[in-house]
Amino acid sequence: MKAYVYGPNGPEITDVAKPVPKGTQVLVKVHACGLNRADLGMTKGHVHGAAGGVGTVLGMEWAGEVAELGPDAKGVKIGDKIMGSGGAAFAEYTLADHGRLFRAPSNMNFDEAATLPVALATMHNAVVTNGALQPGQTVLIQGASSGVGLMAMQIAKLKGAKLVVGSSTDAMRRGRLKEFGADLAVDSKDPGWVDQVLQATSGEGVDLIVDQISGPVANQNLKATKVKGRIVNVGRLGGTHGDFNFDLHAARRIQYIGVTFRTRSIEEIRAIFDEVRKDIWPAVEARKLQLPIDQVYKFADIGKAFEHMEANKHLGKIVVTL
């Protein structure tokens, strides 16, 4: 089968063996894939958790049909329309654990379905499970114009946040954040953004920050968070290191929580997918939680899709179809 593989000379479409499902695995005939920032790093040879390097079939998000079941797979049948996440997605067929997928709603095509699994699982876990957002609270999403950031704002609104602040350093994308739930949009490179957040929260700061930027805004985040507030660190778009004011952190008694899928067991990931299904799936089926598709590329043009992502001018998801 055809797959997009990182080789000695970089990523390219090549022929690999069609995988065979074992245990609780499901074989998926892939129809569409969503691109993610981690994929971009892996096209350059970087590792993501335990995955990456020469010989890696790239990709982590897909939509398709069940083609075959492992002997212990449950909950789906051959022919079911599904979407999910996991490694080796950029291929004609991929394997998925039966607990790491969703049934794709009947009112959603494969392109649309391929945009959702990573954003839904990541941001429900960050905003609701770890962020413990309650109705009437306030939230700031750092890096809000990314696909997962757009989803985070929508989930926050769905869960009753009274004020949602989104950050983006790009003026065009910042201007569109209100379409996805932002009441206030700020530029995290503007030295005055903390003052804007404090003014919008009567000087208190927000109850919750979901931070995808990390390093360069760490101390500003502490200033923008309410006493006894929470910061959930889900990424490092701004870098893995930065100055951190431990005294300010202690003085404001902030809970600082780190989350990632890279070190989670399959049992933990299954539990996260279960929580999405239990808590917000009706909103997914009603199309209240959805992401814009910026551009769709054919699989043969997947290199162009990554060039488009690297140019960093898109809003929403880039999709590749097979």
From TrEMBL:
Pfam families (alphabetical): ADH_N, ADH_zinc_N
Species lineage: Bacteria, Pseudomonadati, Pseudomonadota, Alphaproteobacteria, Hyphomicrobiales
Chain ranges of the Enoyl reductase (ER) domain: 7-320
SUPFAM superfamilies membership: GroES-like, NAD(P)-binding Rossmann-fold domains
Coiled-coil residue windows: none
InterPro entries: ADH-like_C, ADH-like_N, ER, GroES-like_sf, NAD(P)-bd_dom_sf, Zinc-ADH_QOR/CCCR
Keywords assigned: NADP
Gene Ontology terms, MF aspect: oxidoreductase activity
Keyword hit for Metal-binding: no
Keyword NADP assigned: yes
Top-level taxon of the source organism: Bacteria
Protein name: Zinc-binding dehydrogenase
